[in-house]
Write a structure and sequence with these properties.
The complex is a heterodimer of chains A (112) and B (114). Chain A is mainly beta. Chain A has no helices and 11 strands. The radius of gyration of chain B is 13 Å and the shape is globular. The chains are: A mainly beta (112), B mainly beta (114).
């Protein structure tokens, strides 16, 4: 069975600082990996995804993530946080690409 | 280009009642998935419909059922509501092929069971 663990339910960074949100996965087969963002009272929006190929994946709004098979990780980073980045972030895994297993989420707070 | 639309946005029911939630997929999409998001949790996969058939199902009881119509829209039905069914129900649409794994989500229907 596939699952993801997001380390840290809450992360706080200063505006302009590095954003690092951690995600580790377990999967018995090569996974598809995703990061979604959810703003208050809204649905989820895809930030980026890894299916095959290049392990460093770039997404929207300056976010990127690196698939590290040896560490079973898919951490999300952004060099410089903006106030508008404050939201809930979800890591998800799938082996089929059809049904996603989401982590419990990490709430990102950006302080001035 | 309309995205995924869901209705109603909010509703309140009492235990034992039945509820129907509706979803229209993004234009051009043929696959609809439903997820349940409890407060403070990540979304959990309920089931997925393609070509009017349930293709995959998560770990949810038979009280949860669905339907997909020829125009690709979908309904989620929950019978014999329990307090624990209170959650945000998210509909997501995608293409069956090619399978990119990318889902487009609606804003959800928030169900409160009293």
């Amino acid at each position: 069975a596939q699952s993801v663990t997001q380390l840290g339910s809450h992360v706080s960074v200063s505006e302009g600082a590095l954003v690092l949100l951690r995600c580790n996965y377990s999967s018995s087969v090569p996974p598809y990996l995703f990061w979604y963002v959810q703003y208050p009272n809204q649905g989820l929006q895809l930030l980026l995804k890894y299916t095959t190929g290049a392990t460093l994946v770039k997404g929207i709004n300056g976010f990127e993530a690196e698939f590290k098979k040896s560490e079973t990780s898919f951490h999300l980073t952004k060099p410089s946080a903006h106030m508008s980045d404050a939201a809930e972030y979800f890591c998800a895994v799938s082996f089929s690409g059809y049904a996603l297993n989401f982590g419990k989420g990490t709430s990102l707070l950006v302080t001035p | 280009d309309a995205g995924v639309t869901q209705s109603p946005t909010h509703l309140i029911k009492t235990r034992g009642q039945q509820v129907t939630l509706r979803c229209s997929p993004k234009s051009g999409h043929d696959t609809v998935s439903w997820y349940q998001q409890a407060l403070g949790q990540g979304p959990q996969f309920i089931f997925q419909y393609y070509e009017e058939e349930e293709r995959q199902r998560g770990n949810f009881p038979d009280r949860f059922s669905g339907h997909q119509f020829p125009n690709y829209s979908s309904e989620l039905n929950v019978n014999a509501l329990l307090l624990g069914d209170s959650a945000l129900y998210l509909c997501a649409s995608s293409l069956w092929l090619p399978n990119t794994g990318e889902l487009f989500f609606g804003e959800g229907s928030r169900l409160t069971v009293l």
